[in-house]
């Protein structure tokens, strides 16, 4: 082993067993990494939306749609692009108690491009309910999404999966030779590219870059999300190309590499179109007519109504007094 090689964690760390009243709760580290990434993305997105004028906590209303549909999309995309892992003779893909069932997301296998597709549908639904602009939410989400993906990649490390080609670099990843994904014919002790680490660094750098650029140029109207697609797609295309895990191929290229190229192209088109269509600042994260006026505006409105009521009461009082005085004068002069 190289002196600075990266060891894979002990298999005991893959599942945390917590005894509860004689029953054992199994918590998979992969699932914890995914959940932690989702929580961080929600927090970051919520703070960014609030600073742009959205109602505090509204991100949760959208996340209730986006997160479940994103997870479903991520899993379906992975299963469809790795059919040999699930559909083989004797397999029961619908039995959650059997290893390799399509529901067992804790075993690994959640594709980010499927999450983007499913999550986008969920965001669109959530935005329709809340009145938030779709692209405003996407821009607020962009750096948080990269942070979530970086944290989620730690789950691959705990699962000893999705590593890259053999390498002599000192930071090579140690993988046991009895690992099912260990390439045949390689010597025990061979090191591999730690693609999980590469992607963590790449994603965090991308999040920092988007935040940095936002302070200098206009990245509203979907342009920040466009940069996310370009940045992530570029890095993922390279990391995917050096991985050794099996994947569906199209024209000799891994399907996820094609998806990465598509993300880059779509990001470039989105950026150019939105830059041409929207040259000014975004007036509000809400669609017209659905704006949130904030607690101060509500208080002012209440005070205005109160003042109006008081004014009306005063006018009524004056009219009543006038009428009473007139009546009294009339009565006093009547014989």
Automatic annotation (TrEMBL):
GO BP: lipoprotein biosynthetic process
Keywords: Cell membrane, Glycosyltransferase, Lipoprotein, Membrane, Transferase, Transmembrane, Transmembrane helix
Group of enzyme by EC: transferase
Acidic residues composition bias: residue spans: 297-316
Region described as Disordered: 280-335
Subcellular location: Cell membrane
Residues annotated as binding a 1,2-diacyl-sn-glycero-3-phospho-(1'-sn-glycerol): 153
Pfam families named in the record: LGT
Transmembrane segments: 20-46, 58-77, 111-127, 134-152, 196-213, 225-243, 255-273
Sequence ranges of Low complexity compositional bias: 320-335
EC number(s) recorded for this UniProt protein: 2.5.1.145
Role: Catalyzes the transfer of the diacylglyceryl group from phosphatidylglycerol to the sulfhydryl group of the N-terminal cysteine of a prolipoprotein, the first step in the formation of mature lipoproteins.
Family: Belongs to the Lgt family.
Matching PANTHER family: PHOSPHATIDYLGLYCEROL--PROLIPOPROTEIN DIACYLGLYCERYL TRANSFERASE (PTHR30589:SF0), PROLIPOPROTEIN DIACYLGLYCERYL TRANSFERASE (PTHR30589)
Name by which UniProt lists this protein: Phosphatidylglycerol--prolipoprotein diacylglyceryl transferase
Organism (species): Agromyces mariniharenae
Gene name, Swiss-Prot/TrEMBL: lgt
